[in-house]
Amino acid sequence: MPFSASHHRQLDRWLFVGGPLLALLAGYVNVILLMSFSVPVSHVTGSVAHLGLDGAHHDAAHLRLAASMVLAFLIGAAITGYWTDGQMFQHRRRYGLVFVVQGLMFGLAAHWLAEESPWAVPAAALGCGMQNALASSYRGMNLRTTHMTGIVTDIGVLLGLRARGQQIQWWRLALLSLIFGGYLLGTVMGVLVADRWRALALYLSAWTCLIGGISYLLLFPRIRGADATTTSV
Q: Could you list the residue ranges that cross the membrane (predicted)?
């Protein structure tokens, strides 16, 4: 069923608020784990490179850490894919469940981080994998909130098209820029908070996801009702 223009505007508002906030969360979590274990948890590119590097250097401990991160991220994405049953962004009740479980994983990561246990890495990576798989596309645009490679690429493509004199959809450039800014702000916040509170800083992300997920589940009937109204317009 094709969406009406008013329905798209409704989803656009959610994306322009939720997208940057999710990116901020990912940047915040990633930099805290990066400061502690020198392994990213919000994207797998660096960890895949470490698999080859650590394997060649026979660094078994770091190899296991990088492998656990990649596997956990994959499992997290698979869980979200199974629960949400779709790749295009639209409101689903199970989004709330994803956030709740993500919050629990961040809580476990915070607990293990306080104990300086490397289990904090796969726990946080699983949560990030769940978040990144929430929605893969919207109105023909790829959506990612836990890593910035695709975001920066899409911004560059849009700027290149505009430089050639072609018309672009400015809302896309604005959304991508906000997501990038959110991730960058999250990294700054993560450093500042972790410098002061150490492992306790990660509990903030856990509670944010838990409260957000529970709130979404409670408000879903009203959100869904608003979607149904705009779709029928």
A: 21-41, 61-83, 95-113, 119-138, 170-194, 200-219
